[in-house]
Amino acid sequence: MYTEEKVLTRERLYEDVWTSPMIHVARKYGHTDVGLGKYCRRLDIPLPGRGYWARKAAGKRVGRRPRLPTLDRGRINLPTIREPRPEREVMLHEPPRELDPDVKALLDREESAERIVVSDDLRWAHKLVRGVVKDQKRARRNSCCSRFAEREERIWEMADITVGPELLERALKIMNALLKASQARGFKVEGDSDRYNPLSQVTILGQTFKLRMFEPNRQVPHVLTEEEKIKKRKGLASWIPKIDKIRSGELILQVMSATFGFNSRFRDGKKSRLEEQLNDVVKTLIHFVDSIRMREKEQKRWQQQYEEEQRQRLAEEERRRQIEEERKREQERVNELLEEVTAWRRSCDLREYLENIRQRVLSRGEVVTPESAIGKWLQWAEEVACKLIPQRLAALALNEGAAPHEDGLAD
């Protein structure tokens, strides 16, 4: 879809973002609209306001496009883009992937949505935010109780917020604005009353994302206390930490997907605070939905391909098994036939041998009677010869009305 990488100029980017919506421009250059918006703010490129493209599409009057300001600071890094191929080459080789229709509808609606405003008033806060406030009061009450007193357990839902006292109020306001904006957009917002694991999650088009606000720790070299210095001089300090963890004072909003490991973090930047990035958070969640659906389709396709390969493998194994069984049956029939021929030949040889003995006895002038010794032996030998006749040949002889030991059949 792309041929080579080039540096995108401010002038070209300025013309593009005022010619078509940001989501279309970002798709053109292989970026996300959130990332391209950050580039524009970094380069002091004015952007259309909320609802600009909706009003323009409705034929309403829109404000005049502001001029591109001149950069008065030093050289900055311009974003690198991948130059798109001509349309004909794209169509012939690798057509661009279309967004999921439901996701595209949400993104188009988000383009014209109003900016999410963080309110300072928490009197009518979301229930998950109120749960955090209630939990703080519970913790203070428990800290004042005697260690023998019964402690109050949490049985209500609350948002996942882990920050210090200095950032708590700000985190509550940001989380409240994000949860209320998500509900206003028709997304499902829910929590969990688990006493150990607070949970705040948003479900968009069947995909669930966890929202978490936290203050990361910062590692600093450990400074020895006076007591540790004394113990160290006396050789009594068995273990002294080398580093200490302190609160960083930075507020981070993390969105996580339970499937495929999609994860993104938002924090204060040089150009915008976290409160100004909540619309970007919503867009990121919607883009995650599109990526997850694409992964699910690929996974389903791989599963179908695997099942088809398994079906073909089992069918091939069954075909080979049937061929092997047929070969074994045929070999058994051949072996049985050869055994019949061998038995028939031995019976014929035995009869010929017995007839030769009878002729020798008669040539000496002796009479062969059933009561004589030679007669009894010849009778026994004839019975043995009859037993050697194959059953198939004996059955044919009986059907034809002849004795199995007659020379005509035996020969």
What is the chain-wise order of helices and strands? EHHHHEHHHEHEEEEHEEEHHHH
Q: Helix segment count?
A: 13
β-sheet strand percentage: 5-15%
Mean pLDDT: 81
Describe the structure.
The chain contains 13 helices and 10 strands. With 411 residues, it is α+β, with helices and mostly antiparallel strands. Among the domains are: 1-58 and 78-96, no CATH class; 331-410. The strands form 3 sheets. Strands 3, 4, 5, 6, 9 and 10 form a 6-stranded mixed beta sheet that branches. A hairpin with a 6-residue loop joins strand 4 (188-192) and strand 5. The longest helix has 86 residues, at 278-363.
Would you spell out the secondary-structure blueprint of this structure?
Elements: E1 2-7, H1 10-17, H2 22-29, H3 33-42, H4 52-57, E2 80-84, H5 87-92, H6 101-111, H7 127-144, E3 160-162, H8 165-184, E4 188-192, E5 199-204, E6 207-214, E7 217-221, H9 226-234, E8 243-247, E9 252-257, E10 263-267, H10 278-363, H11 373-388, H12 391-399, H13 407-410
Parallel strand pairs: 3-6
Antiparallel strand pairs: 1-2, 4-5, 5-6, 6-9, 7-8, 9-10
Helix pairs in contact: 2-3, 6-10, 10-11
List key phrases describing it.
six-stranded mixed beta sheet; 10 strands; 13 helices; alpha+beta; two-stranded antiparallel sheet; 411 residues; disordered C terminus; single chain
